[in-house]
Amino acid sequence: MAAGAGGLLVAAALLLLAVAGPRPAPAELTDGNSEHLKREHSLMKPYQGAGSAAMPLWDFQGSTMVTSQYVRLTPDERSREGSIWNRVPCFLKDWELHVHFKIHGAGKKNLHGDGLALWYTQERLVPGPVFGSKDNFHGLAIFLDTYPNDEAAEHVFPYISAMVNNGSLTYDHSKDGRWTELAGCTADLRNQNHDTFLAIRYSRGRLTVMTDVEDKNEWKNCIDIAGVQLPTGYFFGASAGTGDLSDNHDIISMKLFQLMVEHPLEDETVDWTKIEPSVSLLKSPKDNVDDPTGNFRSGPLTGWKVFLLLLCALLGIIVCAVVGAVVFQKRQERNKRFY
């Protein structure tokens, strides 16, 4: 009896392991080895053409000002927008971008804004309402949002989020982009007296965003999403915007590294410039809409929900089997008494 129940438990454990599969290991970021640094896509001091309207490999517009120490996208003034964009399209399939930035200003808590955006998009140098750049873009955006426009927001700000767009989605500022957000994290990145960094890694369909904003000289995981499809031939850029509230939004450096990654042979036949930006999610960002009853609409089952359902079902089967075996044994003992 005990051996039978133990066998059932072992079988259940093996089945659950097979269904769940191994969890992905955390992405390890490059140590910044200059061997893989792509200078044609990097912005570093000393900035060539500082203080002038011309910079080799980079274009800027709006309120952007290039100094010897930083590129200021917006000053701490209301209603300003600025951006800086790489002139050279990136044809790397696997890359990692390290951004040294600083967001600071005179505004106290919740009296500053709006934030900074980092881009890998088809469009460049197109001003717009999304942190100083174009809405309905094609590609990837990472938002460093410092002001909560949605009073019902559960996030603690500043908040970092990711969005992939094929041109059909609109960023909703009134909801802080919640409807189109893929994932995000809170990061205390404003008005710090030490250096603040962010890293974006894209490799084999996996997007990873990590931060180093606590003066610990170590990366902290923020976003990790699989199933991301981004084409080659897009442009890197950064933009920022202010509204009724303001901040200084500075870029100190943007360094792009090539990742040496092996791809399956079938990838060699793919035209990576023709891929449409997309994300293969069990839950679509479009499901992030409010229910009329005031509840959040539940999307399709995630992997862990399926795992828990299977676990409950298997435990139920085991309990039924044990109870059945006990009942059967009792009946057998009772029948023996009549012989």
* Count of helical stretches: 2
Portion of residues within helices: 10-25%
For this entry, what is the oligomeric state of its chains?
single chain
- The portion of residues forming beta strands comes to 25-35%
Q: How many E-type strands?
A: 16
**Uncertain segments:** 12-26, 283-302
Arrangement of strands in the largest sheet: 1-4-14-6-7-8-9
The topology string of helices and strands comes to: HEEEEEEEEEEEEEEEEH
Instruction: Briefly note the structural class of the backbone.
Output: alpha+beta
Q: Describe the main β-sheet briefly.
A: 7 strands, antiparallel
Q: Average pLDDT, to the nearest integer?
A: 84
Shape: globular
* Through-space gap between termini: 24 Å
Radius of gyration: 26 Å
What does this entry look like structurally?
The longest helix is centred in the C-terminal third of the chain and has 34 residues, at 303-336. It is built from 2 helices and 16 strands. The model is unreliable at 12-26 and 283-302 (pLDDT under 50). The radius of gyration is 26 Å and the shape is globular. Strands 1-4-14-6-7-8-9 form a 7-stranded antiparallel sheet, with no helix packed on it. Strands 2-3-15-5-10-11-12 form a 7-stranded antiparallel sheet, with no helix packed on it. Strands 13-16 form a two-stranded antiparallel ribbon. Helix 1 (2-20) packs antiparallel against helix 2 (303-336). A hairpin with a 4-residue loop joins strand 2 and strand 3 (71-74). It has 339 residues and is an alpha+beta fold.
